[in-house]
Automatic annotation (TrEMBL):
Highest taxon listed in the record's lineage: Eukaryota
InterPro entries cross-referenced by the UniProt entry: Sugar_P_trans_dom, TPT_transporter
Lipid bilayer topology: Multi-pass membrane protein
The keyword Transcription regulation is assigned to this record: no
Localisation per UniProt entry: Membrane
Signal sequence annotation: none
Keywords, in A-Z order: Membrane, Transmembrane, Transmembrane helix
Protein name: Sugar phosphate transporter domain-containing protein
Domain Sugar phosphate transporter, first and last residues per copy: 27-311
Transmembrane regions listed in the UniProt entry: 26-46, 52-72, 141-159, 171-188, 200-221, 233-254, 261-284, 290-312
Species, as recorded: Rangifer tarandus platyrhynchus (Svalbard reindeer)
Length: 336
């Protein structure tokens, strides 16, 4: 590039200088959505098709892979996060508890519900995230966003009310998963200060602090015994999918933190809603545990429509280039 070209680039529009950050926002959101989509399908195959009885052991495997990949990467100076000191547990709390709760409840609910109902009930994460961001982070949202949230909730209630394969235990686990996911997203955003732990430190120490307690829980509940006695350990396809789930579990944790780092906890929840559209409709065709009813199908579609409208409002507002200070140009769809 010539000196004139450099001078021209130096005087470029500030909006173009912000372009990489907007691209990073979009790519991190797409990365999270893809990882989440693939992990739900693989976990569904393991826990339902193969009948693997131990979601907690699967969670331990995902934590172990996360610790191993991040530690080896730190040793090879590919990534950096602070060494352990006695202040780290205080800095991280309550993330480890939310992290393991999110992990176990998510895997347990996946095994007990059809994919369409699982994805619909997971949409309650969105209003919970809105509520927690309002309380903890002090954010405010417009009427359009609130209307979209109510559409999501209405559709979920209609679908759940006519779910012919109702499973109380599955509903309890998925609602716990919604609470843990919303709280985990909001607190991750709050704790991810680059000057403190950073995104890699949050991931690594979360997994380190909770892998032993989770392993103890799996032993005390008999979950580990059921896993060791499972009759598919000689099945090569099962082993490949188990290892794939562990690796995708790490990618999902990383992509969640990355999406929250570049965007917000709300955007992360919204991308999950878009991903759920694909999962729900694929789940009607595969998996074998969805029982069709007209009212349930209508509720699913109301919920999906509300989720998509909400998603486009939020993502469109966050990815729009910021104009010079002029209050009239502030988005009317989302005010943060």
């Amino acid at each position: 590039m010539t000196a004139g070209g450099q001078a021209e680039g130096a005087g470029a529009d500030p909006a173009s200088a912000r372009l990489p950050s907007r691209v990073a926002k979009l790519l991190s959101a797409l990365f999270y959505g893809t990882c989440s989509f693939l992990l739900v399908l693989v976990n569904k195959a393991l826990l339902t098709t193969y009948g693997f009885p131990s979601p907690i052991v699967l969670g331990v495997g995902q934590m172990a892979v996360t610790i191993m990949i991040l530690y080896v990467s730190k040793l090879n100076k590919i990534i950096h996060f602070p060494d352990f000191d006695k202040k780290i547990p205080t800095k991280l709390f309550p993330l480890p508890l939310l992290y393991v709760g999110n992990h176990i409840s998510g895997l347990s609910s996946t095994s007990k519900l059809s994919l369409p109902m699982f994805t619909v009930l997971r949409k309650f994460t969105i209003p919970l995230t809105l509520l927690l961001e309002t309380i903890i982070l002090g954010k405010q949202y417009s009427l359009n966003i609130i209307v979209s949230v109510f559409a999501i909730i209405l559709g979920a209630f209609i679908a759940a009310g006519s779910d012919l394969a109702f499973n109380l235990e599955g509903y309890i686990f998925v609602f716990l998963n919604d609470i843990f996911t919303a709280a985990n997203g909001v607190y991750t955003k709050q704790k991810m200060d680059p000057k403190e732990l950073g995104k890699y430190g949050v991931l690594f120490y979360n997994a380190c602090f909770m892998i032993i307690p989770t392993l103890i829980i799996s032993v005390s509940t008999g979950d580990l015994r059921q896993a060791t006695e499972f009759n598919q350990w000689k099945n090569v396809l099962f082993i490949i999918q188990f290892l794939l789930s562990c690796f995708l579990g790490f990618l999902l944790m990383y992509s969640t933190v990355l999406c929250s780092y570049y965007n917000s906890a709300l955007t992360t929840a919204v991308v999950g809603a878009i991903k759920n559209v694909s999962v729900a409709y694929i789940g009607m065709l595969v998996g074998g545990d969805y029982i069709f009813s007209v009212l349930n199908f209508i509720g699913l579609n109301i919920c999906m429509a509300g989720g998509l409208r909400y998603s486009f409002l939020t993502l469109g507002s966050q990815l729009k280039p910021k104009q010079p200070v002029d209050e009239e140009n502030i988005s009317q769809d989302l005010k943060v």
